[in-house]
Specification:
Strand order of the largest sheet of chain A: 5-4-7-8-3-9-10-11-12
CATH class of the largest domain in chain A: Alpha Beta
Structural class of chain A: alpha/beta
Radius of gyration of chain A: 52 Å
CATH architecture of the largest domain in chain A: 3-Layer(aba) Sandwich
Order of helices and strands of chain B: HEHEHEEHH
CATH architecture of chain B: 3-Layer(aba) Sandwich
Helix content of chain B: 40-55%
Number of domains of chain B: 1
Shape of chain A: elongated
Strand order of the largest sheet of chain B: 2-1-3-4
Number of strands of chain B: 4
Largest sheet of chain B: 4 strands, mixed
Shape of chain B: globular
Number of helices of chain B: 5
Strand content of chain A: 15-25%
Number of helices of chain A: 17
CATH superfamily of the largest domain in chain A: P-loop containing nucleotide triphosphate hydrolases
Largest sheet of chain A: 9 strands, mixed
Radius of gyration of chain B: 14 Å
Strand content of chain B: 15-25%
Largest interface: A-B, 24 and 37 residues
Distance between the termini of chain B: 17 Å
Oligomer: heterodimer
């Protein structure tokens, strides 16, 4: 927080007010007195009280609050809207002195603060107070009705503060910018070491709170006017972001919501990058953002969905119709949805609110839908600055952010006239309508995506029950076809495919048939072959038998005729018994053969 | 405010000027100039208008600060009239005699 270059002779004490400690490079001057000046309702009392509460809660430092203007019951009641637990603190850590003189009190001659300061010292010693606030000292001073008395009492307070060292003393005074002479402002300014000016003004019908450090003795501080906003935890100052950009680029990719879109983006979005989705109303910017959120939640990453001018509940319900279910993630606490109106709050207040939300929820992914809504209230210049600051803030926090912006007309270039965030966003997706043949169809184009390949193709964004999807578009004669035309084209393609398949099937069937036929023929031929083989075998056997039987007959005939053996030799002259039996057997076979021969023609 | 003094006026006309004892408490800051002046101014008023019909307690806030705090005192000097009712509180060095008498309910008694 404190810069190393500048010497810091003055010790400081943090107020714990977000943004202020950065502006003042550490908080209020320690052991010194600070003056908060500003018109009514500019936030002086809240600042003082919040510092006191923070000291009591975070550092266990008791404090005293001296209320000159409002009664303390009122102050505690007013602060009940902040989550400080003030009533409990007022019982033990903080002491409220009702220093508002009742109107019944009669004034007779001069009085002074000697007694009060003695009482405060006693109380301070009793509770060990380390902080003291004199709220609305102007009210007290005007009661004195005398500039000399005013001066004298201011001296008295200054001396008391010098004698009773506290960690910090705060004096608030209702001093309008236009009428500083109401109290002895010159002296008041002189006696303190730090002066903070508060202002509440109207700009384009929107109440803006501003804070400015106008004096800080012995210390450097951030000069200039900064926005102040009030949230559930109290006041917050929109301190400027450091000039140096210290973001680390990540090479990690996260899903943009669904696979096809990731493919178009060359693998998804870079972690910590910022994406802008532009389009006229109704082009499904919210759906795309919702898909991104759902994907983040599915990865188990804490996610923040900020919507403007539409309730979170309604968005969740509408997204359900396209298959994006956020409610379960809300229940588990992974997803936080926040919605806000934009007409009544200036852009800077939104930024402070967003910072608070980021600090509370610590998201890794975030959506603002639509970011362009912040330009509705207040000046456009402020909204532009805020949009830029938001993108840088998200980068610093390494949050992957998707913002949507509504643009007038259907040309992406017109976005440039609006918030001018397209130049600082890393990825720019543009959604548009394409009207042809009486149809409006959504087209998605990636206009830019830093540091990565991305598709240059226009895709049709189709919303279905199961979620959004991207479809190829056909170009015909230089025109892209979408919707019904795309469907017709696809149908045509489908018909062609079917026809091709039918043709193929037919051909295949024909070929199969031919094959079967051939096989059948082969089988028939084989059967023929088999039959012929059998025939051949039978024929050969018969032939052999015929040959054998004819030679046997010849022998028989010779035997019957008792003819000499043809070849001569003893075998024929002396028939042996063995030969006889053999002849009997051969006789048998001879009979058989005879039979065969008789059968055969 | 007005009801009681009127009664007193009637009584005053019939008998001695003051019949009720006025009880007061003066808170001072030791010898601070305004406090010293207040003591003197009050003494003079009492002597002139109340005779001995008054009871006055002087409390030094510097000595008993927490008591003064409990009594609801803010600035010094402060004079609290405790009785007769109504109670009244006067701040300042009591140099404006008229307003003191009025606040104490003595103004009409005088006349």
């Amino acid at each position: 927080m404190t810069s190393n270059a500048a010497p810091q002779p003055l010790p400081k004490i943090a107020t714990g007010i977000p943004g202020f400690d950065e502006l003042s490079h550490g908080g209020l001057p320690r052991h010194r007195t600070s003056l908060l000046r500003g018109g009514p309702g500019s936030g002086k009392t809240v600042f003082a009280l919040q510092s006191l509460v923070n000291a009591a809660r975070r550092r266990q430092e008791p404090g005293i609050f001296v209320a000159f203007e409002e009664n303390t019951g009122q102050i505690i009641a007013n602060a009940a809207s902040f989550d400080w637990g003030l009533p409990a603190l007022a019982r033990n850590k903080l002491f409220f002195l009702d220093a508002k003189l009742s109107p019944d009190v009669v004034k007779s001659g001069e009085f002074d603060l000697t007694g009060m300061l003695a009482m405060l010292k006693a109380k301070k010693d009793e509770i060990g107070a380390k902080w003291i606030v004199f709220d609305g000292i102007d009210v007290l001073l005007t009661l004195l009705q005398n500039p000399i008395a005013e001066m004298r009492e201011l001296y008295r307070i200054r001396d008391w503060l010098a004698d009773n060292e506290v960690n910090a003393a705060i004096i608030t005074a209702k001093i309008d910018v236009d009428r500083p002479e109401v109290v002895n402002y010159g002296f008041l300014q002189f006696m303190v070491d730090c002066v903070v000016r508060f202002e509440r003004r109207l700009e384009h019908g929107v109440a803006l709170h501003r804070i400015q450090i106008t004096k800080y003795r012995g210390s450097d501080f951030v000069a200039g006017e900064y926005p102040v906003s009030f949230g559930p935890s109290g006041m917050e100052v929109g301190a400027p972001e450091p000039a140096e950009i210290k973001q680390v680029a990540s090479g990690e990719r996260v899903s943009a919501g669904f696979e096809r879109l990731d493919t178009m983006l060359g693998g998804g979005l870079f972690r910590g990058s910022s994406t802008l989705i532009t389009g006229v109303p109704g082009t499904s910017k919210t759906t795309l953002a919702g898909k991104f959120v759902e994907a983040a939640c599915r990865r188990g990453e804490r996610t923040l969905f900020v919507s403007f001018d539409e309730s979170a509940d309604r968005i969740a319900r509408n997204l359900t119709s396209v298959g994006i279910h956020l409610k379960t993630h809300i229940k588990t606490g992974l997803l936080r949805m926040y919605s806000s109106r934009t007409e009544t709050i200036g852009a800077e207040d939104h930024l402070i609110k967003l910072k608070t939300l980021i600090r509370e929820h610590r998201p890794r992914c975030m959506v603002i839908d639509p970011l362009s809504a912040i330009a509705k209230a207040g000046s456009l210049a402020a909204a532009r600055a805020v949009a830029n600051r938001f993108i840088y803030l998200a980068k610093d926090e390494k949050i992957t952010v998707v913002v949507t912006a509504i643009n007038e007309g259907d040309k992406p270039e017109t976005e440039a006239t609006d918030l001018q965030i397209s130049t600082i966003a890393d990825t720019w997706i543009h959604l548009s309508y394409l009207i042809r043949s009486g149809e409006r169809n959504r087209a998605l184009t990636i206009i830019k995506s830093r540091g990565t390949w991305h598709s240059n193709q226009v895709r049709e964004l189709v919303l279905r029950d199961a979620g959004p999807m991207l479809a190829d578009v056909y170009s015909a004669g230089g025109e892209v076809l979408m919707g019904t035309l795309r469907w017709e084209k696809e149908d045509e393609e489908r018909a062609k495919t079917i026809q091709r398949r039918a043709e193929f099937d037919q051909k295949r069937a024909a070929l199969e048939l031919t094959e079967a036929d051939t096989r059948a023929r082969i089988r028939a031929l084989q059967q023929d072959l088999e039959r012929q083989r059998v025939e051949l075998a039978t024929y050969s056997k018969r032939n052999e038998a015929r040959i054998v039987s004819s030679s046997d007959r010849e022998k028989e005939l010779r035997r019957i005729r008792s003819a000499d053996p043809a070849g001569g030799g003893p075998t024929g002259i002396v028939p042996s018994p063995a030969k006889r039996s053999a002849s009997v057997s051969s006789g048998n076979s001879g009979r058989k053969h005879k039979k065969d021969a008789q059968v055969a023609p | 405010m007005r009801k009681l003094p009127r009664k007193k006026t009637k009584r005053g006309a019939s008998g001695p000027p003051v019949t009720t004892v006025v009880v007061m408490r003066l808170y001072i800051a030791n010898n601070a100039p305004n406090s010293v002046r207040a003591v003197a101014n009050l003494a003079a008023i009492c002597k002139e208008h109340l005779g001995d019909k008054y009871k006055l307690e002087i409390i030094d806030v510097l000595e008993y600060p927490l008591r003064a705090l409990a009594d609801g005192i803010l600035v010094t000097p402060s004079l609290a009239k405790l009785s007769p009712s109504p109670a009244a509180k006067i701040v300042g060095n009591l140099s404006d005699k008229g307003s003191v008498l009025q606040a104490l309910g003595i103004a009409e008694l005088v006349e």
